[in-house]
Amino acid sequence: MVWLVLGLGNPGEEYAGTYHNVGFRVVERLASEWGVRIRERCGPALISTGIVSGPDTVVLVEPQTYMNRSGAVLPILLERFEATAGSLIVVYDDLALPLGRVRVRGKGSAGGHNGIKSLISVAGTDEFMRVRVGIQPERDVGGVRDFVLSKVAKSDRDLLEKTEETAAGAVRALMADGIEKAMAAYNGIDLRPAQ
Question: How far apart, in whole angstroms, are the C-alpha atoms of residue 170 and residue 101?
């Protein structure tokens, strides 16, 4: 089996440290763990190759389109790797979840996330796995667009890094154990400090 792990984000240095680039940072964390680099061009995406996890092959993907056009990467990836939407694991930021929480899902709506809207539109289905990474801090964030495209606040960095590390674990669990076990293991985790 070939797993396509898509980390959603925006290309370019100006977006690297933003809340919206959580997906990129999670797949980069996995690349670092597996000793590979995400640098090969595949249509409008950068990918890694040669990662083997047990009997499976894993391809880490960073779309090089802007977030709202993330789906443009799917046709060439699915064709090249003879994959289906069922082999996709999409990692992305979610403002509907508190910072410090991760949610694993097997399908579902876009929930207002433009990257997921684009993927559903191109794939023609919402039945692909996702790892949603909470970015909603305890404070009021004002406008959604301005917040997700802003640099991660110093006060949020440590907790967000731990959440991204947990999200990387959820990706590994999805591939190794399947959706039900990954949901059971990760959906109850709350990394926020006890009040």
Answer: 12
- CATH number where 149 lies: 3.40.50.1470
Give the amino acid at 75. Answer: P
CB atoms within 10 A of CB 177: 13
Angle at the Cα of 145 from the Cα atoms of 28 and 113, rounded to 5 degrees: 65
Closest by CA to 160, choosing from 77, 109, 99, 84, is: 99
Helix (H, G, I), strand (E, B) or coil at 98: strand
Catalytic residue positions, numbered: 20
Residue-wise pLDDT for 13-59, tens only, equals 999 999 999 999 999 999 999 999 999 999 999 999 777 767 789 99
pTM: 0.96
Using alpha carbons, select from 33, 97, 82, 100 the residue that is nearest to residue 60.
33
Measured distance CA(57)–CA(184) in Å, rounded: 24
pLDDT digits over 148-175, tens only? Answer: 999 999 999 999 999 999 999 999 999 9
Total count of domains within the chain: 1
